């Protein structure tokens, strides 16, 4: 019936008995769920609890006196003590093996009175010490929590390292705002955010989910999927060379800058489905991001992390995604040469000779970006009027009916990796695309005049595709 109890005491130990146990978890400070009686051993520096089934508690005080409350005997007392040299505090680790009280002796004579008197005398002192210790613990916890929530970022040096923006030969100047220059720290932060699902509502998808590097930063789907497998409205556009886009972004050109572009997917219910208020809190309370934002932007407090800085970091990273080393680029730099088939395909693409049929490709896909960045209606959808387009594209942004059914002219770089094609991913192969343009597309009031019936032979199409493959990064 004996039970061994192990605990740590510092200086004086006191015992407090409560006949009515509380339903609290074992191990919580100053309390435990007990079956019969609860004893709390308390000191100004520690709490520990133990239970007894009408057992006796043996305490060894700093005066090396042995007391047994309500018991006549105790066995197997093992003490290991260390005495400090300066403060002379005693720290004891006790292993107590207790015997149950003799039932016959309970409640008889002065023994019960002595027990009651002892507990009465120490009750108030135990209460005060318990309250004092709890206050100290609460203050310590409050300070620790405050330190975690409000890290002192000023101790982290802010010295960003400037990066030179990529500027390939013959490319237009990259669009870089004065308030968001490229830095090594900013790009690193943007890259981490790009691949981190923390920006989505349920932390299930990231920017990479729809912009996979191996697929030229597209996702290989006709239309993208968001959180909870929600189906989007359009195909994910490639992010390669997006830093050179000076005429708006997205298929409909709804935003002017990369800094603004990154804000939209986060709050789109069909994409990441979050709010920037919630994302800001997640980043502010993250163990690593406050430091990274400090290194990139010099913030002084974690509360400064917001959508603006996230947008800046993502924009810096995306401006480093440049495609400018394809075979076409190397041929233009006279480092390589086209094969005869590729050369003929180049001639067809640019309508460079009357000896080959006209393709009209180069009117909308101008090198080196292979896009005019304009918005065109290429006759994908039959429409008798300007109001017949289910997806109005650019018109939904400008509110101009003449812009209905128009979408950004996409780049032709890395077509090998970016299928399916068009804003709704309707064409699975390049042959499907050529079939559409060769047919002249569907008529419409604002269809581009460059979309007209073509007369391309099987060999012409093969040569044209051979040239288009020189625009792939290998």
From TrEMBL:
Keywords: Heme, Iron, Metal-binding, Oxidoreductase, Peroxidase, Signal. Pfam families: CCP_MauG. Its EC number is 1.11.1.5. Residues 340-472 form the Cytochrome c domain. InterPro entries: Cyt_c-like_dom, Cyt_c-like_dom_sf, Cytochrome_c_Peroxidase/MauG, Di-haem_cyt_c_peroxidsae. It comes from Haliscomenobacter hydrossis (strain ATCC 27775 / DSM 1100 / LMG 10767 / O). Its main location: other. The lineage of its organism: Bacteria, Pseudomonadati, Bacteroidota, Saprospiria, Saprospirales. One of its GO terms (molecular function) is metal ion binding. Residues 92-111 are annotated as: Disordered. It is found in: Cell envelope. It comes from the Bacteria. This is Cytochrome-c peroxidase. It is an enzyme of class 1 (oxidoreductase). GO terms for cellular component: cell envelope.
